Structures are given as C-alpha cells and as structure tokens.
Amino acid sequence: MDADPRISRIRAAAILIIATAIGISFVGIGIQHFRKPEPFEAIVPAYLGWPRFWNFTSGGLEILLGLGLIVPVARRWSARLLILLVLAMSLANLNMWMNDLPFDGTRLSTAGHVVRWIIQAVLLMVLVLLGRPWKREAGHRGNG
User: Fold this and answer.
1) What is the pTM (predicted TM-score) of this model?
2) Maximum Cα–Cα distance for the chain, whole Å?
3) Is 140 inside a domain boundary?
4) How far apart are CA 29 and CA 26, in angstroms?
5) What whole-number distance in Å separates Cα of residue 47 and Cα of residue 124?
6) Quick check: 70 pLDDT over 60?
7) For residue 15, how far is the Cα from the chain centroid?
8) Interatomic CA distance for residues 126 and 64, integer angstroms
9) What's the burial of 45, exposed, middle or buried (CB within 10 Å: 0-12/13-18/19+)?
10) How many C-alpha atoms does 120 have within 13 Å on its Cβ side?
11) Torsion angle of alpha carbons 97, 99, 103, 107, nearest 10°?
12) Domain range holding 123?
C-alpha cells in the first residue's frame, strides 16, 4: 500500500478511469454482437462451428465482464476472465488475417492486422494489471 494517501487516491482514480473506459468499450462491442451479428459470425473459424452461438456467447460475456470492470468489487475477476476471453477471440482475429476475411465489408492490410494485434497485446497487458494475478486475496497471509 502507498504511504502517501494522496498517491493512493490518485492511483485508485486512475484505475477507475481506465477500468471504466475499457469496460464501456467491451459493453459497446458486446452490444454490437447482438445488434449486427453478421460481421462477427463471418470471422468465426469454420472448425469451431456454430458461429451464432460463439458470437452471442462472446458478446454476452463482453457485456457482463465489461460491466464487471467498472464495479470495483468485481474488477479483478472480470479482468482475469476477460484475458481468457480476449485470448479465445484471438482465434477469430487470426482467422480473419490468415483467410483475408473482411469485417463488415472492410479488409485489413497486413499493417492493419499487425496494428490490431499490437492493440490487443496492450489491452491484454492492461487487463493483467487490472486483474493483478500476483496479488493474494484479502485474508491470506504473506506479501501481496
């Protein structure tokens, strides 16, 4: 814990702002899975089958876990589960790149796909920081 209470408050405010911004983004994208499912379903790898199921499942999880990022008590677990979800959804992103599939009519260049993967890597790093997997839960002994 920070010795200076001002630092602690600033850190808590920064975490809230970042978590809320990312959470709202996930909620918005999750809603799009239901409002306009076709672009999302088109990039689901064929070997997974059932693109509608995967689309609605991932969209629902994005909404639920995005809201969880905003709520401090649910933030750590929501971030941890979003890490797994983002990694799983990487299959669709990889499929899109490998098979040159358009998303909602737009095909990305190789540079566009690389930028998308860099953004995804940064997102994963932020989710790891929000999920703090190295910190022990309250009530456990030892250094957190």
Assistant:
1) 0.85
2) 54
3) no
4) 5
5) 25
6) yes
7) 16
8) 18
9) middle
10) 19
11) 70
12) 5-131
What mean pLDDT comes out for the span 25-44?
97
Q: Is residue 137 in a domain?
A: no
Domain assignment present for 143: no
Does the residue 20 lie in any domain?
yes
The SS3 assignment for 45 reads coil
Total domains in the chain come to: 1
**Per-residue pLDDT at 132:** 84
Q: In this structure, what token pair is assigned to residue 96?
A: 């899109």
Calpha distance 117→90 (Å, rounded): 9
More confident residue, 57 or 4: 57
Q: Which long-range contacts (CB under 8 A, 24 or more apart) does 45-51 make?
A: 45/91, 45/92, 45/95, 48/91
